[in-house]
Automatic annotation (TrEMBL):
Annotated signal sequence range: 1-31
Keywords: Signal
Name this protein carries in UniProt: Right handed beta helix domain-containing protein
Entry annotated with the keyword Signal: yes
Protein's UniProt keywords contain RNA-binding: no
Biased composition (Low complexity): 580-589
Span list, region Disordered: 404-425, 580-599
Bias-annotated ranges (Pro residues): 410-425, 590-599
Length: 797
């Protein structure tokens, strides 16, 4: 849900005074933006000095923006027609003082696979940015990352009077990324932000957007809240549009900031219209002092041909998606909105409706519920109402228009909601003793004062696939340890679980189940008998502690199976009842110690290792941990990664100066290949330094052809980790590291040679890696976003 900040190809720099015109014939296979073909286009330009720029520019290369700004001097871009396979205006390394007005932008087919359409404009560390009266289609919208202005009237962000069509994150070869019409990331404590009077229309099956408007760890100030008002947003659909899973919205406040100063804050959204937005119209998922009021949310649940949408959920909600304490998530309200939101099969407040999210709208007050039926004609009436509203206020959106500033009402203050009380520990079964708790896809933990074992504990066998949903908003909410357990689970439509080393007795067994997508129906069997029939898992975030199920054990092994739909199993809790199976008068047994986890034996015993070499992949020679690292110019290695650096990001966890410089200067690629050559045959331990410069990616790494790191979430901006060691036997003189999945940032590779001669070893940690603080994770839009909690369950090797 955030934009990446990566360097790309180099561009020809042209001064403002000399522009070389190049007439290009339209040669694109199936251009998605219907751009003008009767005008002459210039080649892409790079702006290196301030001034006003106008003209028509086209780029057929996804790596080459139409306009790249590389100056901090004030720049105005106006009256342009921009046609591009990649970004139209790239202001990531300049453009801090920028006016973009009266331009038309068209995204065309990308020049490479697995590439989304380009931004209309992307700005990093802006100081004063005004984007007004533009038209753009088949782009990935406006992205603003961090801020350097003072929040004054001349040092803020303004996005007004624009018309956007089909925000489109699709790849040309299938798949894609979720993107936004306007996304803010770490634009914090900025006064006078104004996003208003914009029109956004996304067509089903011709677009792919997530949150049309997203504030991620961003917002205004207490004295000057950010204002999002009088916008018309129509359409937020999965692709294809009739899919049942989607994580998008009309607007979402989002972000994993762990303090009141770093999370989304001080935002008023009012007088907006959100029409036909799957999943939700207005989500309030993170932050404090956020007010949604006097908005209209209308979704018929139908496609234009009358067929049903399958991914609608609710009109609005207030939910603590990141499970932050009341010092971070507080003083939020949703009031006086008009809502008619269809969710098939629901009844809130009437048939096939889900206007206010059940269990997540305690501070949603004064709602006007539109009467049924909500139809396609209801949606069309919203469009008519918007057009009348524009006319009454003398506003024309899009290019070729000029508007005056419209006064905006001041939001009424709302009282801070009382913080929810901390949940009490679940009561223990009467006349029973705790035997063991099993964290089905996680590590050892303590829940309700009882020591739970990791999934790798001895005596346990289970099938299914591991999955995580790190930002799943649980309903009901619960304390941290149980939350973490519930967010790491295994899933299967036919579980077969065996838990051994149980003495002959009668046991009470509980199962912790959770839903991260759509409701499923399944049954549970224990020892061959059905103990739970046709359980419905409920909407996203629902969890239950099913049981207790009474099971008489005689063979020492508890067998648990499931049938029906996919079940997400997070935990198993076993208690021994106070009476044995042989008699009802025997005294209650004393507490049995929980079995201890037996570590898996190594392939060999490694007694020591010697530093071999380490390479700083985008930097100079350096000393780290008293070991001499080689520069990126060192011989005997190759990489296909693109170099980039961002030394302005704070690392988490904190690193030494030498480490930090090395980590923040790296190479990246979606299909990374690093190969070290002239390596003497033998056994080695390989470490890789990876980090995230902005939005989380899900990546995997293999070393010498064997899986090493599977579906790893890179975390939020600044997160880094030294992963490994991965033990490999070199027989051909090379060590090869391959990355796959999302963009992976590889900063350095460190190799140690084992002193003991060994046979071939599989790629698996042979000794404990250095301990680092866990990284905060950021929602990945491809596997489930923080704005919406429907996650795809990834398969882990």
């Amino acid at each position: 849900m955030t934009q990446r900040n990566r360097s790309g190809a180099r561009f020809l720099s042209l001064s403002a005074a000399v522009l070389f015109l190049l007439t290009l014939a339209p040669t694109f296979g199936h251009a998605q933006g219907q751009y003008p073909t009767n005008i002459t286009y210039s080649a892409p330009i790079t702006i290196t000095q301030g001034g006003t720029y106008t003209g028509n520019f086209r780029s057929t290369d996804s790596n080459t923006p139409c306009i790249r700004i590389q100056t901090t001097q004030p720049v105005t871009i106006k009256n342009c027609v921009l046609v591009g396979a990649g970004d139209l205006i790239d202001a990531k390394n300049g453009g801090s003082t920028l006016v973009i007005t009266n331009n038309k932008g068209y995204g065309i087919q990308q020049s490479a696979d697995n590439r989304r359409h380009g931004r209309f404009v992307e700005v990093n560390t802006g100081r004063s940015v005004r984007i007004e009266n533009n038209y753009f289609e088949h782009t990935t919208g406006i992205a603003v990352y961090q801020w350097s202005g003072d929040g004054s009237a001349n040092g803020t962000l303004t996005v007004r009077y624009n018309s956007a069509k089909n925000i489109d994150g699709r790849y040309r070869n299938g798949g894609g990324q979720y993107v936004q019409f306007c996304g803010l990331n770490q634009v914090r404590n900025v006064g006078n932000i104004d996003i208003s009077w914009n029109q956004v229309v996304n067509e089903p099956n011709n677009s792919l957007v997530e949150d049309n408007i997203n504030f991620y760890n961003s917002g205004g100030t207490q004295q000057s809240p950010a204002r999002v008002h009088n916008n018309y947003v129509q359409g937020a659909y999965p692709y294809p549009a009739n899919s049942s899973t989607f994580t998008g919205t009309g607007i979402t406040t989002d972000g994993d900031g762990s303090s009141a100063a770093t999370t989304t804050a001080f935002l008023n959204a009012y007088e907006n219209q959100f029409v036909s937005t799957c999943n939700s119209a207005m989500n309030l998922a993170a932050g404090h002092d956020i007010k949604y009021y006097n908005n209209r949310m209308v979704t018929s649940g139908l496609l234009p041909d009358g067929s049903r949408l399958n991914a609608t959920y609710c009109g609005t909600s207030i939910f603590n998606a990141y499970q932050q304490p009341s010092s971070v998530f507080y003083n939020n309200s949703v009031s006086n909105n008009t809502i008619g939101y269809i969710k098939w099969g629901y009844n809130s407040p009437m048939s096939n409706r889900h206007d206010l999210s059940n269990g997540a709208c305690s501070n949603c007050t004064g709602t006007t519920h539109m009467p049924n039926p909500i139809t396609l004609q209801s949606e069309q009436a919203e469009r008519t109402f918007w057009q009348q509203k524009l006319q009454q206020n003398n506003i024309v959106v899009g290019a070729d228009a000029t508007n005056s500033t419209i006064a905006s009402p001041t939001p009424a203050p709302a009282p801070a909601p009382a913080p929810a009380p901390a949940p009490a520990p679940a009561p223990a079964p009467t006349n029973a003793v705790f035997v063991r708790g099993i964290n089905v896809n996680g590590g050892a933990t303590t829940i309700d004062g009882q020591a739970w074992q990791a999934s790798s504990a001895s005596g346990i066998s289970m099938n299914g696939h591991g999955a995580t949903a790190p930002s799943l908003a649980l309903n009901p909410s619960t304390e941290a340890a149980r939350t973490e357990m519930l967010r790491t689970f295994r899933y299967s439509n036919a579980f077969d679980i065996k838990i051994g080393s149980l003495s002959s007795a009668t046991y009470s067994v509980y199962l912790y189940v959770v839903e991260n997508m759509n409701a499923k129906t399944y049954s549970v069997q224990m020892e061959g008998k059905t103990v739970q029939s046709n359980y419905n898992s409920g909407p996203v975030g629902t969890w239950r502690k099913l049981g207790p199920f009474t099971v008489a054990m005689t063979d020492g092994t508890l067998n648990i199976t499931t049938t029906g739909g996919h079940a997400n199993l997070a935990g198993i809790e076993i208690w021994r009842q106070g009476t044995s199976t042989a008699t009802t008068t025997a005294p209650a047994p004393t507490s049995m110690p929980a079995p201890t986890s037996i570590p898996a034996p190594a392939p060999t015993t490694v007694t020591a290792a010697t530093f071999f070499r380490a390479i700083n992949l985008n930097g100079a020679t350096v000393s780290i941990d008293n070991n001499a690292w080689e520069a990126s110019t060192a011989p005997n290695y190759t990489t296909n990664g693109t170099p980039f650096a961002n030394q302005g990001i704070s690392l988490n966890p904190v690193a030494t100066t030498a480490q930090a410089d090395m980590i923040r200067s790296s190479v990246y690629s979606r299909n990374l290949n690093f190969t070290m050559s002239n390596v003497p045959n033998g056994s080695y331990e390989v470490y890789a330094y990876i980090w995230e410069d902005n939005d989380a990616q899900t990546v995997s790494i293999s070393v010498n052809g064997q899986a090493a790191l599977n579906n790893y979430d890179t975390g939020s901006a600044g997160a880094w980790k030294k992963v490994g060691p991965y033990v490999v036997a070199v027989t051909n003189g090379t060590i090869q590291l391959l990355g796959s999945g999302g963009d992976i940032n590889l900063s350095g590779v460190e190799v140690w040679r084992q002193n003991a001669a060994t046979a071939f070893l599989p790629v698996t940690p042979a000794r404990a890696a250095q301990a680092f603080a866990p990284m905060a994770t950021e929602l990945n839009p491809l596997t489930g976003g923080g704005s919406a909690l429907a996650l795809l369950t990834p398969t882990f090797a």
